[in-house]
Design goal:
Distance between the termini: 14 Å
Shape: globular
Low-confidence stretches: 167-179, 183-190
Mean pLDDT: 74
Radius of gyration: 16 Å
Strand order of the largest sheet: 3-4-5-6
Number of helices: 0
Helix content: under 10%
Number of strands: 14
Length: about 190
Amino acid sequence: MTASPGGGPRVALFDGKTGERLGGDFLAFDGASRGGFSGALGDLDGDGRAEVSVAQAGGGSRVRVFDLAGALLAEGLAYEPTFAGGVNLATGDADGDGKLELLTGAGPGGGPRVRAFTLARGGLAEIDNGFSFDSAGRSGVRVGSAVNAAGQTVTFVGLNGRTRVAQYAIPVAGEDSPFGTDYLGGIWVS
């Protein structure tokens, strides 16, 4: 779990079935940070254990990846150093190789840009980068990932402030407006 805007950079890990605390209670960024944070879990290095990815939800685009005990494994910028809109995170198999990658969606003020990264020597190595909707839009996007009935990983991208959701699989699956085109509240995808 990570804090919403106004909250600090504390990461707390819980078992999804039992609600029991899993250890992992640490600060992902400077303790004075209050911009809120986005988090994702997934085995990004192939060791059979999940890593914790945390990004600034506002004030920058720094992403950090930790082991479950809170040791920093990698960090980098998801977007340009001047971008201050934050980052939405997910993990998923973006390239169909059977391994998880870190998926990023630009926050408010950014275009509908999605990037995919692997871990590389203490940093992030980009493997994919593109716009999910009209590149002129500046509402940002939210990302999520799931495995469909055919065993394909499908990445979902939802616009902030709009209802369009794009689905990407290999091959590309499609796009929809599940709440109607007049709803402007945005969509959370996971």
